[in-house]
């Protein structure tokens, strides 16, 4: 379960586990919120006593939602709380936006230990601080034992779009380079390693991270030279590249040798019979960049958080529209399709 | 399951139930979204191919989230789809805001029949149209059989606050009148009647409704004379009044005789041993109104949608701060506390 956050010791609750009363909207819900959620996440905008928060917004704003159902809830390198914050912060970043405000909604299963809920809450707090986003409104529901799975979290985010950002599928064009910001498949394999009881020489940790500061620094410097940003979470790199090929009506070529991946992740994929191109990522993004700026973007990205191992992995081509073609390390070529079934349910 | 929405016949899917692949982020997720969700909810802003929507917002904006876990998913008078839209639209309305944009996130249980999912989706569409709100971004996750319960929905909403609105707990003051917009406890009893297999002479229907148009018309006319708005959902009227007494540090007095309630709801409450003051509402709101305008607000409200049976049920008093006192029909007085346990789990 990791170590308890020392800055936020758990107050004394007169209950050890979540029960249905905590979702009643009545006294127990109020107790849980006052001592728990609001105690941890305190900020001036988190309106503890109304149905919503009041914000001042101007200009183009990104709006994005994600529900998180990851299993197990605690995994090497993180837990569902920080995943839920980072996930939505990153979705906003992919729109070229700086996350400003988050909503936070819990669906708790009766019987969830308060210690676990507390650890998740403090992770939400830490992740939100790191990303510079405020949790301003929320909701808590409780379902009976066996009708949920410990905890599901929805976060929905709002963020101002950077004035220099001009990111859209329509800007993707032949010659653009495709940058991958870091080693792929780490998150999926970290989760799988717990589920399957795999042991590695070192503990493989999820790459969950907030990418917003990195992204916004790139946009600040390179502005419209960045044509598209995507985070290859569920479905992995292969699925996102296929979506680009389909929606931008272009061909995509990638070079296996160039794709960054940790050695132990590659080994685990072989062991488990998984293609890393389809395995979920959390702290990785793809940037489709104007050809003549690709080198400069790469150099800059390598100096930023989470970008040290970035690579140019391929390019947008006119040939084979709507297809992603992989050049393998041994010189072969193969078409890479979108993820067809489901390899790793509940990875995020 | 009610009748199928004729305006949105279900397309032919090559699967009859939801499976884990629909949450993979890959091909099956894309199929479900393209033919299903985007097909039904189509609008110019619903960006089918990015991680978030881009909005233009200005001025004070309300932001509110709710997850819906109601059981059963289909109930007399509605289903979880319209409940999820109306619930967040109403939370925004209680902030004095006109709902503009919604996010929509599903947690589906493996095995959910597509016909049911389709009916819920079309209800989302209808409810959104009625409320004048656009669903602009979303998410779909799938959990294994037995790790969820058919379908949970999160909606998060954004809406511009009416320029004449001045709604906050700090505006509640001695002498203010408390208006209840319609018969209480209907939603909770409609749900309970299905769960308990109760039969009424007429079918009791949930009062789920979008209150935004009604509220905004009142604000348009009466502006700052409306001090506070709340919707007494979970925890019922008693809990919301207690929150007001606590947070505004005032006393609340209500008169049982004045509280609107359907006769059959009263009967069912007696039969089930439930106090209607604690039973959940969906299409009802409470307005705390400046004394000298209360009569005029009531008259106007009675002419608006969902307000025909509105009543002034009580007032804010200086006596007994933080307490809600009920004057009973037979002349007694009793303190009404916040809901202590949980009478009706998963009512919304």
Largest interface by Cβ-Cβ < 8 Å: A-B, 84 and 84 residues
Oligomerization state: homodimer
The ordered H/E elements of chain A are HEEEHEHEEEHHEHEHEHEEE
Count of DSSP helices of chain A?
8
Instruction: Work out the radius of gyration of chain A.
Output: 21 Å
Stretches with pLDDT under 50, minimum 5 residues of chain A: 1-5
Mean pLDDT value of chain A: 93
Overall helicity of chain A? 25-40%
Give a summary of the structure in a few sentences.
With about 350 residues, the first copy, chain A, is of the alpha+beta class. The first copy, chain A, has eight helices and 13 strands. Chain A folds into two domains: about 20-160, 60s Ribosomal Protein L30, Chain: A (2-Layer Sandwich); about 170-335, PurM-like C-terminal domain (Phosphoribosyl-aminoimidazole Synthetase, Chain A, domain 2), CATH 3.90.650.
List keywords for this structure.
homodimer; 348 residues; alpha+beta; 60s Ribosomal Protein L30, Chain: A; Phosphoribosyl-aminoimidazole Synthetase, Chain A, domain 2; 7-stranded mixed sheet; 4-stranded mixed sheet; 8 helices; 25% strand; disordered N terminus
SSE layout:
The structure is a homodimer of 348-residue chains.
Chain A: H1 27-41, E1 53-68, E2 74-75, E3 78-79, H2 80-94, E4 97-109, H3 114-131, E5 134-143, E6 151-161, E7 177-180, H4 186-196, H5 212-222, E8 226-230, H6 236-247, E9 251-255, H7 263-272, E10 286-289, H8 294-302, E11 311-317, E12 324-327, E13 333-336
Parallel strand pairs in A: 4-5, 9-12
Antiparallel strand pairs in A: 1-6, 2-3, 4-6, 7-10, 7-11, 8-10, 9-11, 12-13
Helix pairs in contact in A: 1-3, 2-3
């Amino acid at each position: 379960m990791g170590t308890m956050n020392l800055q936020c010791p758990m107050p004394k609750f007169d209950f050890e586990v979540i029960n249905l009363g905590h979702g009643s909207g009545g006294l127990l819900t109020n107790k849980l919120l006052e001592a728990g959620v609001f105690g941890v996440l305190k900020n001036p905008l988190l309106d503890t006593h109304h149905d919503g928060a009041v914000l001042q917004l101007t200009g183009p704003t990104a709006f994005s939602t994600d529900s998180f159902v990851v299993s197990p809830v605690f995994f090497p390198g993180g837990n569902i709380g920080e995943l839920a914050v980072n996930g939505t912060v990153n979705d906003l970043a992919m729109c070229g936006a700086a996350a400003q405000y988050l909503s936070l909604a819990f669906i708790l299963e009766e019987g969830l230990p308060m210690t676990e809920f507390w650890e998740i809450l403090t992770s939400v707090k830490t992740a939100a601080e790191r990303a510079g986003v405020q949790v301003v409104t929320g909701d808590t529901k409780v379902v009976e034992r066996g009708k949920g799975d410990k905890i599901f979290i929805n976060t929905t985010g709002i963020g101002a779009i950077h004035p220099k950002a001009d990111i859209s599928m329509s800007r993707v064009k032949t010659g653009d380079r495709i940058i991958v910001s870091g080693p792929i498949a780490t998150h999926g394999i970290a989760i799988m390693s717990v589920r399957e009881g795999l042991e590695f020489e070192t503990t493989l940790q999820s790459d969950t991270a907030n990418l917003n500061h990195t992204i916004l620094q790139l946009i600040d410097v390179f502005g419209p030279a960045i044509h598209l940003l995507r985070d290859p979470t569920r479905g992995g790199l292969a699925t996102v590249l296929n979506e680009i090929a389909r929606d931008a009506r272009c061909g995509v070529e990638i070079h296996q040798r160039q794709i960054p991946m940790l050695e132990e992740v590659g080994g685990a994929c072989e062991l488990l019979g998984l293609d890393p191109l389809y395995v979920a990522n959390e702290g990785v993004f793809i940037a489709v960049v104007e050809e003549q700026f690709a080198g400069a973007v790469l150099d800059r990205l390598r100096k930023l958080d989470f970008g040290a191992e970035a690579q140019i992995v391929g390019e947008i081509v006119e040939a084979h529209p709507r297809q992603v073609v992989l050049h393998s390390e041994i010189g072969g070529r193969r078409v890479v399709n979108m993820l067809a079934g489901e390899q790793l349910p509940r990875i995020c």
